[in-house]
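#struct-help
A.M.: can someone run this one for me? Single chain, 151 residues.
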Amino acid sequence: MGGAIASQVAADYGRRVRRLILIDSAGIPGVGAGRILGRLLQPWTWCPSRFYSTLLGDILKAGPNVFRGIHHLRGFDVRPALKRVRAPTLIIWGAKDSLTPPGHGAMFADRLPNARLEMVPGARHLPMISHPEVVSRLVVRFLREDVKPGS
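D.P.: on it. Structure tokens below:
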């Protein structure tokens, strides 16, 4: 849910956001709550196996809040706010993401005025876990780019 929140913050408080990085972001409806819940409960469809214990621990800590979050996220649509984001934005998406479909990455890129979409081949929903070298390289390159003030 962090990408949806970060996008909304960048839209609402743009002068405070110099750059934005979204990785397999939520914020575009289209995956039903039951489908999301089913996928969350079957992490092997979207999550690298070495991340399972962390995921399970987080779900147990959050308790019922996980279900509340899914319910709220299901109806949250950040698309209307995206046109107000002025910060240069890097969008990184796992090409095999089954939790937030790759087409959603293209929707973000189409609506953000100053964005670049990078697909990570073979990655699912957490490319920073499964392909850390690729994601790190993309992030570092993006953060080193010259950005003109006001762009």
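A.M.: thanks! The CA atoms of residues 4 and 62 lie 19 Å apart.
D.P.: also worth noting: The helical segments are 2-12, 33-41, 52-62, 65-75, 79-82, 102-111, 127-130, 132-144.
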